[in-house]
UniProtKB/TrEMBL annotation:
Organism: Amycolatopsis pithecellobii
Methyltransferase type domain ranges (all copies): 77-173
InterPro entries assigned to the protein according to its UniProt record, in alphabetical order: Methyltransf_11 (IPR013216), Methyltransf_Superfamily (IPR050508), SAM-dependent_MTases_sf (IPR029063)
Alphabetized Pfam families for the sequence: Methyltransf_11
Name of the protein this chain belongs to: Methyltransferase domain-containing protein
Top-level taxon: Bacteria
Matching CDD domains: AdoMet_MTases
PANTHER family: METHYLTRANSFERASE, N6-ADENOSINE-METHYLTRANSFERASE TMT1A
Example GO molecular function: S-adenosylmethionine-dependent methyltransferase activity
Gene3D superfamilies registered for this protein in UniProt: Vaccinia Virus protein VP39 (3.40.50.150)
Keywords of this entry: Methyltransferase, Transferase
Record-level GO BP terms: methylation
Length: 321
């Protein structure tokens, strides 16, 4: 049976009834929100498939899982979105052959298009992480980036990950929000949004105000975002959950404290003003600031602050041989 027969088509134009139903159904909300976002997702999150994102993806992977075992012959990504993590890991030499999966058909379509443009050996399926449509013992590696916090039953998804891994195979999930990190990131984001959209209401700064209908659309997207963002994680709890699912050699690592304290206001500010105001100079300033603060986090703050304070948590583990 071909993938085209099995997989449902994307739905980037949800009806008002579907959106209403989605507020009570996180999985439907995920499909609608991410189908809607798929076409512009890379641009919105500054995702690229060049050295900048290749080194980001490989650095994150190596920080939690190390370089042993690379290149993995086969790897599958859960909640791949447009392919940011898996495609950049493939380009960075971590993975040879890849499979992208996502609950959103629109995302799978864009990920496969991105892989084709890059000339990478990738296939794809629409898949719910709680019921992965692959046989037992299929992959050497399963990865995910910013996906676990969207899955209603995370322990069920981890059990599925271990089922589809070959014995001795590894999983790596990165980019998940910690409990404390999510709290301060949200507060900083809300404050920045309120300040930016209010000071640009009147006077000379009004040229920095996005049209009201665009601000309203961002607010509607943010409301649906609140439905799809289900969990935040304490690193220790996440490790216990992975062990409970049957994994061994489990390890959680956190990153980004100073980088998150600056990054969330900057990203929110960028979303609240017209795109043409964000000059190349501004974007370079924001990127270099983030690089410098990330280095401060890695070299100094990670040694002195408790891991729970950092914004991102990543976790790895192995299926018992
Ligand atoms: C925040 S996006 C991250 C996308 C990509 N991994 C990245 O880092 O750019 C989360 C992705 O997870 C997918 N997703 C949400 N719930 C899922 C589930 N139960 N099973 C599989 N994918 C899911 C969404 O459709 C979305 O594409």
């Amino acid at each position: 049976m071909s993938d085209a027969v099995v997989d449902p088509p994307p739905n980037p134009h949800a009806t008002a009834e579907q959106v209403k139903a989605a507020y009570a159904d996180p999985k439907l909300a995920n499909v609608l929100y991410h189908d809607w976002e798929a076409g512009t997702y890379d641009e919105k999150w500054s995702i690229s498939y060049d050295e900048r994102c290749i080194s980001y993806a490989t650095d994150v992977f190596d920080a939690v899982a190390g370089e042993d075992g690379q290149p993995y012959p086969t790897a599958m990504e859960l909640g791949s979105g447009t392919g940011f993590f898996l495609l950049n890991l493939m380009q960075g030499g971590v993975i040879k052959k890849g499979s992208v999966t996502d609950l959103s058909p629109g995302m799978v379509r864009v990920a496969l298009r991105n892989a084709e443009k890059l000339g990478l050996d990738v296939d794809g399926r629409v898949a719910d992480a709680e019921r992965i449509p692959y046989p037992d013992n299929t992959f050497d590696l399963v990865v995910g980036h910013a996906v676990l916090h969207h899955i209603p039953d995370v322990p069920a998804a981890l059990r599925e990950v271990l089922r589809v891994l070959k014995p001795g195979g590894r999983f790596v999930f990165a980019g998940e929000p910690t409990k404390i990190g999510d709290f301060y990131a949200r507060k900083l984001g809300q404050l920045t949004w309120w300040l930016t959209t209010n000071v640009t209401k009147f006077g000379p700064l009004s040229a920095w105000r996005r049209p009201q209908e665009e601000l309203d659309e961002s607010s509607r997207a943010a409301a649906l975002e609140a439905v799809v963002d289900i969990h935040t994680f304490d690193p220790g709890d996440l490790e216990r959950m992975a062990r409970g699912a049957g994994a061994t050699e489990v390890r959680a690592v956190t990153e980004e404290f100073a980088a998150a304290l600056a990054g969330w206001p900057i990203r929110t500010f960028e979303a609240a003003v017209p795109a043409e105001k964000l000059t190349v100079r501004w974007r370079l300033f924001a990127y270099h600031l983030w690089l410098r603060l990330s280095a401060l986090d890695k070299k100094i703050l990670a040694r002195v602050l408790p891991r729970q304070l950092f914004y991102n948590v990543m976790i790895t583990g192995v299926k018992r041989p």
